[in-house]
TrEMBL record:
<protein>
    <recommendedName>
        <fullName>N-acetyltransferase domain-containing protein</fullName>
    </recommendedName>
</protein>
Amino acid sequence: MSIETLKTDDGQVTIWMDGPAWDDHPKVATVGKCKFTSATAGARLLAEAVALAKSKGATALIGPMEGDTWHAYRLISARGDQPPFLMEPSSADHDEAAFKTSGFDVISSYFSASAPLSALPGPKPKDTDVFTIEPWDGTDPDALFTQVYDLSCAAFAHNPFYKHIDLTDFLAMYQPVVPLLKQELILFARDSTGALVGFLFGIPNYAEGPEPRSVILKTYASAQKGAGHWLSYQFYVNAKAMGFETVIHALMHDDNLSAIRSGLNGADVFRRYALMGRAL
């Protein structure tokens, strides 16, 4: 993988030449790790990134994205008043202007929302014998995340901007958060053979300190109809029993089912994000 970093006195960016697919562009690069002192400085650096990517054969450039959607991507397009939460992307207020000035447009939009757990979980889903829901047993985190990896690759393969990642790289991303994990907030759906057909990954919002009052519903995926509803229901039940007061529905695409379900659960949007792109 070809990676290059551009630095000046007023900022820096890193370019990954082997980016994910985007529309019908034959060779997509990404630009991330963006640090600008101003929109003007950012636009200058991004113009250099565009020229470099084009000279290397790229036909499109998207960002902010650190190579793929498994790693940090998106900028904050509407900050709101709520403080940052754990594992949330960060960007300066002038970053979006820097991208737009250098010819980028919004190509995908996302949001985070919060809801009081006092109003959840809502009606219990219908009982089923197609799958069962169980929490992580707290042992062997590598085995845990290997299962999550396998289902994630299958569930997300058709998502926009998807790019495959090796298991070793996937495990390296999650190993730093293992000490922060709570068994009750990591849930599996298994069919009658024991095969994994869904998972939900939640984590306390330690950005609030050692005793957070909010909990983050970070990711879930399902290969079985109804499993996602059951996973989220059990997550809310467990989170309430643990004393959390608020749930954060983190980093949802504007158009996906999670966004619809978040709205049905009475969640209020508090932050918006954008992914930017331009043809070269």
